[in-house]
Amino acid sequence: MPEQQSSNSNTDALGYIRTCKNYLRSASAVHHRTSSTAFAELVDNAKDASAKTVWINRVTARKNQFCLSITDDGVGLDDRGLLNMFGLGYSEGKLFKGGIGEYGAGFKSGSMKLGRDVLVLTIQKRSHRMFAGLLSRTMHDMEGLQDLTAVTVEIVEGEDGELAVKQDSRKHRQSIDMIKKYSGVVQSEKGLVTLMKRLREAKRSTRILISRISSDLEWEKEDICMKMPRDKHYRYERSLRVYLSHIYGKIRVRDQQKNPTIVLRNSEIIPVIWEKTLYHKGETSFAMRIESLRGLGRVQCLVGFKDPLNQYPGKPEKLKRRPENEPQGVIWLVNGRTVELFTPTKTQAGQNGDEKAWTKYSAVQAKGKGARIICELNLNNPTGLKLQQNKDGFQKNDSYYKLLAKMDEQLRKHCSQAMHKS
Ligand SMILES: Nc1ncnc2c1ncn2[C@@H]1O[C@H](COP(=O)(O)OP(=O)(O)OP(=O)(O)O)[C@@H](O)[C@H]1O
Ligand SMILES: [Mg+2]
């Protein structure tokens, strides 16, 4: 039983609830259908920690064995922060202005989707203290541990300026043993200290090393290829570079950088500028009254037609649609981060009775096809929208459907204006 519970007489009567190790597997399976959203969780965390750059790379652990490395230059963590990061439900996302994390689950579900064991090295910017922590499914299995457990150690600088693991009795030896045995990347105390030294020299704050990585990931020269389930008969592949360039895209060229720069396998990811993917564009903004008592939420939108030349680079040839087959839809951005890449709206060819008129228009715009609305939301505004836990969309509540209906209305308006102009 945790100390704080047993020492408080008011809670003596309460039952301590176990968190079984299986939670790690279930969280990854429940929250992430694919590896792409798992990567995004880790980049989101770096963004919430005010990182300017995130590096995604691979590290050779042993011969022909690789692990994933996600490093950032954010604020870093102290020992309490690190344990909170491993814990369930604790979140500091909302404390950061414009933060996207709120559920206290993303790190666990995301890292465990990508691999089985995670070693975290972190240097807290404020105090310069250094910590390493291990969350490992292999450790639980091999050591017969049933309850969720993590290992942490502090790394300190000696008088000679050399780094070493802080010696605090028996715990220190045991922790180092666990890290050596199960991190999949560090084979000795010296190896751990060397990794920390490199992190410090590079002036980076938090490094997440994931080993025993999922077989759905394949290394490419400047990319990681993700094998995605589509349905039971067919799997397709997605480029992490293309995915992240969309998820951390910008709405306009002049937008100040809200998202960190992402360097994937030593090459910077160029964010998509949503404005450039549209032609015949216009801006629209409308307020939404939602049942909540918090008043009006203003929604800013960019409307237009999908640029037929912008055919999603990296998408397999057979999945590319011809412009005239493009559906209409909404692309959602929350606090500068794209959330739902595309939601088809119900207005489609013929439904608005304008079919004849549309056929006069160009092939792409005929029947309103390919019409897009890019919607900027700020979660501090009272729109009633709530993110799904994996940030891959919104909870399908009343507000969501109301907003979608408004979008549909705006799209119709824009389509008919565009038609009259031509
Ligand atoms: N790279 C990082 N740098 C600094 N702190 C981090 C980092 N990653 C995670 N944390 C800390 O760990 C906490 C838990 O992270 P986790 O992703 O599990 O939840 P969250 O981001 O708060 O919420 P959500 O489940 O919505 O993502 C964060 O609130 C943050 O305090
Ligand atoms: Mg998170």
TrEMBL record:
Entries under Pfam families matching the protein: HATPase_c_3
GO molecular function, one term: ATP hydrolysis activity
InterPro entries: HATPase_C_sf, MORC_ATPase
Highest taxon of source: Eukaryota
Signal peptide: none
PANTHER family: MORC S5 DOMAIN-CONTAINING PROTEIN, ZINC FINGER CW-TYPE COILED-COIL DOMAIN PROTEIN 3
Protein name, UniProt field: Morc S5 domain-containing protein
Protein species of origin: Lotharella globosa
